[in-house]
Design brief:
Rossmann fold, alpha/beta, Alpha/Beta hydrolase protein, GDXG_lipolytic_enzyme, AB_hydrolase_fold, nine-stranded mixed beta sheet, hydrolase, globular, 28% helix
């Protein structure tokens, strides 16, 4: 239990498994930060906020974002979940979509989880109201789930470069399978439960990313997707809306101080989403289903997560979204 500067008191539940197995796997667990409910005032279960960490598909852990989770929970007075997922490392050389498959399993588990206490098997949140936050590579993971890739072209094989090997001369794992509309499909219940997605410093168009940062190919793109001539099939800024996702609202954040991911990535997904939703990019910025904020944040790529501005921006967006839904009433 932890007391926040604004006197918000949290129950903190750690290392909750979201995939049932006999052996514990820390990469298939999540932490949950729950503000104490005011019994006389809170008659409805609150929504759940989920923060999914970045780390180039190869690093970071949920514990590193405990401070952000606490600040988000304190600002919104909503529970905040932070999951782990498998990473691409020398000992676990998994390819995309393995990481996103873990994320999808986590999200599905939230719909039916019975809660942290066997004596009171009720989750401390409303599983029909989910708000998701993806930072850096996890923004790619979220768009890989909630947007739908097209059928692959019949001539996709020329995308493959010559076979690559590791430094020890051992052949690398095969490249990621070309995504199809059946890849990473969320259930209708998950689509309906997800109300909004916030994405910050996201990666979407990998080919464009490598034009700006060519060293990223060796560092994390090739280990995650394979050493290919083009990564166009994994450009989520070219995917379509999944049936049942038309109600989703999106917020795209980018910091002016980020030197690790250029704003062009956010511009690509912003332009594509506004086109998918038929939103006028000139007049619909603040009230449409796709919103952006590229002027307020000034910190470096991950430093923003340790500050106060980021959780305030995200929290205010979620609170405003909920207020707007409640004002509109049942559809």
């Amino acid at each position: 239990m932890s007391s926040q500067p604004n006197t918000t008191v949290l129950d903190e539940h750690r290392d909750i498994p979201y995939i049932a197995t006999d052996a514990r796997n820390p990469l298939h667990e999540f932490d949950l930060y729950v503000p104490k409910r005011r019994e006389n005032l809170d008659t409805r279960l609150p929504p759940l906020v989920c923060f999914i960490h970045g780390g180039a598909w190869r690093s970071e852990d949920k514990a590193e974002h405990a401070g952000l989770a606490r600040r988000l929970a304190a600002h919104t007075n909503f529970p905040v979940a932070v999951p782990n997922y498998r990473l691409t490392t020398a000992s676990t050389p998994i390819r995309h979509p393995g990481h996103a498959e873990d994320l999808l399993a986590f999200l599905h588990s939230l719909l039916t989880w019975s809660g942290p206490q066997a004596s009171a098997p009720t989750p401390p949140y409303d599983p029909t109201r989910l708000y998701l936050i993806g930072h850096s590579c996890s923004a790619h993971m979220l768009t890989s789930i909630f947007l739908q890739p097209p059928e692959p072209a019949s001539d996709a094989s020329p995308l493959l470069a010559s076979p690559s090997s590791t430094a020890s001369g051992v052949p690398s794992p095969p490249p990621s399978p070309i995504p199809t509309p059946d890849t990473l499909v969320p259930s209708p219940a998950l689509l309906a439960a997800t109300h909004a997605i916030v994405m910050s410093e996201g990666l979407y168009d990998l080919d464009a990313l490598l034009v700006t940062y060519p060293a990223y190919k060796t560092w994390f793109i090739a280990p995650t997707f394979g050493r290919l001539r083009s990564y166009a099939p994994w450009n989520t800024a070219s995917y379509q809306l999944r049936p049942g996702a038309e109600h989703l609202r999106w917020l795209i954040l980018h910091s002016k101080g980020d030197t690790l991911v250029d704003q062009g990535q956010s511009e690509r997904i912003w332009g594509h989403l506004t086109e998918l939703y038929g939103q006028d990019v000139h007049v619909g910025d603040k009230g449409g289903p796709v919103q952006r904020e590229w002027e307020v944040l000034t910190e470096e790529h991950n430093e923003m997560l340790a500050g106060e501005v980021y959780p305030r921006l995200v929290g205010d967006y979620i609170l405003a979204n909920i207020q707007c839904q409640e004002s509109a009433g049942p559809s």
